[in-house]
Amino acid sequence: MNVSYGAWAITLIALSAILIFDLLIVGRRPHEPSLRESTLWVTFYVSLALLFGGLVWLTAGPTYAGEFYGGWLIEYSLSMDNLFVFMLIMSRFAVPRQYQQKVLLIGIIIALVMRGGFIAAGAALVSTFAWIFYLFGAFLIYTGWKFAKPEEEDPSEFRENVLVRWSRRLLPVSSGYGDGKLTTREAGRRMVTPMMIVMIAIGTTDLVFAVDSIPAIFGITREPYLVFTANVFALMGLRQLYFLIGGLVSRLVYLSYGLAAVLIFIGGKMIVEALADNRVPFINGGEPVSWAPHVPIWLSLVTIIGLLALTALASLIKSARDRRRALAKVAAATADQPSGDVPGPDSGAGPERSAEADPRSDGDALPPRGE
Fold first, then answer.
1. Which pLDDT band, with edges at 50, 70 and 90, does 15 fall under?
2. Which domain range does residue 135 map to?
């Protein structure tokens, strides 16, 4: 795929203009976007990615368009997992809702810069070293295995990395977020706000996800232009997606298993195709391996979509079943209570009775049900 410098320049200008426009919206009026606003933005960005893939189809053919769609879908899926970690960070540092848009947007900009650097480095490695695909494939299989491995620690808890802990110890941190800026003046002293620590946490998280995502997309396409644009389109709607789906991400309980299957599939695909084009001297005498096939892009695309769709469906079914079971347990517990414990319709008592009204109490208030 030959992409001229002019096409690169037009693409970068157009994508930068969209990003700047998004930045101006957040900078002008920090707020929590409504469901309607989030839906419109997510629809806009997804439609933009689909239209861009159609443009690639018209100008470069269906194979490259399929590679773009496959790469975009992988990066979008990995961004969903990234989004879950962002939610944990927001919760851990108690970021006010009106400032969460700003955190997300700056996090996305950091991710774009980091991934741009990784893409340039990856493209240079791919064009120079034939053995790099074996390394990328093995790394993706290992990463997939880590995704599928059950966490021994609570996945709902964000674990601060070394850089975040170091920053909290060395930097003077203010007591509050103030107006959402990175620094403030408190008691006559210049201090960083907790927003700075949040940005460091987001940035290091972006770095980890960039290390995972770039080899994954190189398993679909070796075209730097497609790798870059797929990453940009996958990240651009992430801010609005955060507010649109909210707790839905936490209900995708099998997302890590779906991503694990996708990464292992892509890693295996990379190794098999590296064998088919082998030029490494110590593997098969430097000759291509005859039995190793090239996996067509349509098969990769169908496999990725199928695995992710199956993951989402299984997750939603399990979440719905768990919710029904929880409601059934509550209903059963309520039905098993003695009738005297339940206030009558004319008693005027609410669902929680005071300690004075409860003959079993010694004067201490009863804890609310469910605690």
1. confident
2. 11-327
**φ/ψ (deg, to 5) at 186:** -130, 125
Residue whose structure tokens are 């939603």: 316
CB atoms within 10 A of CB 334: 11
d(CA 185, CA 288): 65
CA–CA separation, 85 and 108 (whole Å): 13
Which residues, 6 or more positions from 249, have their beta carbon under 8 angstroms from its beta carbon?
Answer: 80, 83, 84, 87, 255
Report the Cα 61 to chain-centroid distance in Å: 30
Residue 33 located in a structural domain: yes
In 3-state terms the chain splits into helix, strand, coil percentages (rounded to 5) of: 70, 0, 30
SS (H, E, C) 74-110: HHHHHHHHHHHHHHHHHHHCCCCHHHHHHHHHHHHHH
Q: Per the structure, how many domains does the chain have?
A: 1
Residue 114 lies in a domain: yes
Q: Which run of H or E residues covers position 40? A: helix 35-60
Mention every residue, 6+ apart, whose C-beta is less than 8 A from residue 324: none
Residue 354 lies in a domain: no
156 CA to centre of own chain: 14
CB atoms within 10 A of CB 340: 8
Residue 358 lies in a domain: no
State how far the Cα of 254 lies from the Cα of 52, in Å rounded to an integer: 30
Tokens for 22, please give them: 């998004």
CA distance 53 to 72: 9
Task: Copy the structure tokens of residue 326.
Answer: 């929880």
Residue 88 pLDDT > 70, yes or no?
yes
Say how many residues make up the chain. 371
- Provide the CB-side half-sphere exposure for 97 (13 A, CA): 7
Residues 105-125 pLDDT 10s: 777 788 888 888 888 888 888
3-state secondary structure of 173: strand
